[in-house]
Design brief:
By secondary structure, the chain is an alpha/beta fold. It is built from five helices and seven strands, in the order βαβαβββαβαβα.
Length: 134
């Protein structure tokens, strides 16, 4: 009988995306990957959610009904420095440099594959568990 792997605590991931189809797709892409997924549809809801929760990863769309994810990154960096940010955008590929410079860990241009998304999240979660060496 093979030894069972110890269960690790599910990693919390917040999805900030206003398009219902994209939210559904992200949930399907990450389903069964030992992640606790939550989603909100705008920046105001994200700010409210983050008052009580501390997700390890935030998947942040750039174009939202109440503003741009790019403008929200500095607030995230200031108030939630431990959270890793994956910026996603399908409208403005030039947003990549601004997102990374602003504090996003990874930028994914829509459309992206399931593997690209999953690898990005896993990479960020592994970075979180690596010891810091000075």
């Amino acid at each position: 009988m093979p030894a069972s792997k110890p269960r690790t605590k599910a990693q919390k991931v917040l999805i900030v995306e206003d398009e219902g189809d994209m939210c559904l797709l992200l949930n399907i892409m990450l389903n069964g990957k030992d992640m606790e997924l939550d989603h909100v549809k705008n920046l105001a809801a994200a700010e409210e959610y983050l008052q009580n929760e501390q997700p390890q990863v935030i998947i942040l769309d750039n174009k939202l009904p109440d503003g741009f994810g790019l403008d929200f990154i500095p607030l995230l960096r200031k108030n939630h420095p431990a959270s890793k940010i994956i910026m996603i955008s399908g409208f403005d590929g030039s947003a990549k440099d601004a997102a990374i410079e602003g504090g996003a860990s990874i930028f994914l241009e829509k459309p992206f594959t399931r593997d690209q998304l999953y690898q990005a999240i896993r990479q960020l979660m592994q970075e979180e568990t690596q010891p810091v060496v000075d």
